Amino acid sequence: MERGVEGGRTGGMTGRRHGFEYQSCYCEENVYLMGKELSDQWPGQSFHVLFISNPSRSVLISNQRAKENEIVCWDYHVVLLHLHHDLSSIYDLDTRLPFPCPASQYLTHSFPKGVSPELTPLFRVLPLHSYLSYFSSDRSHMISQSGEYLSPPPSWPPINSPLAESPNQIDQFISMNPLHLSPISQVLNLDQMNSFCSLNNDA
Questions:
Q1: Which of 53, 80, 198, 200 could disulfide-link 76, Cβ–Cβ 3.0 to 4.6 Å?
Q2: pLDDT, tens digit, for every residue of 45-71?
């Protein structure tokens, strides 16, 4: 098991993964750019962004590229959900599971069962269009007390969406307080997340 800031898994790996822009440690920005690209390619499709964390900011996740054959513990993680009536899929640029991965398979094989409550996942779920409109991050959460980046930043500029209330709202997205961002998102547990995907498959 490894404890670390999100994405600190590949020593600053940068470039492209599965054809999408990628920078390790910055999954929220990777998903932003990937979601924008996919929504441009497939207009009208239903995409949602999932922030995965909990009140203790310690979530166990299996099948991550950071640790082969081990479970890692992240403070948060961000993935993209494609809802479809035939089969909903999750796009996770850091998983060892298929890409994209059927949502039920991803949820079953990414989150170990029987762990203590402080290590179980919660999911902040919001439509991709809301994420692209409201998300912002100045990357200050990735700067140490000495003023150095914990992991090299992406080559692209920090994200400041057109309707963002400030240049840095990432903590509100990571927070699992359901009152935060309530007009545009909801917070679900793992069972509710499975139901959310299943209901859309059955629609």
A1: 53
A2: 999 999 999 999 999 999 999 877 789
Question: Does residue 14 surpass a pLDDT of 80?
Answer: no
C-alpha span between 154 and 139 (Å, rounded): 10
Euclidean distance between CA atoms 184 and 126, whole angstroms? 6
At 80, phi and psi to the nearest 5?
-115, 135
Strand, helix or coil at 129? helix
Would you name the residues annotated as active-site residues? 27, 77, 92
Half-sphere exposure of 178 (CA within 13 A, CB side): 5
Please choose, from the candidates 6, 32, 5, the residue with its C-alpha nearest in 3D space to the C-alpha of residue 20.
32
Distance CA 60, CA 72 (A): 6
More confident of the two residues 12 and 110: 110
| C-alpha count within 13 angstroms, C-beta hemisphere, residue 11 | 1
Residue entry with tokens 């690209």: 37
Residues 130 and 97: their CA atoms lie apart, in Å, by 27
Residue spans of beta strands (DSSP E) within 31-147: 46-53, 59-61, 72-74, 77-83, 89-91, 101-102, 122-127
Class of domain 3-202: alpha beta
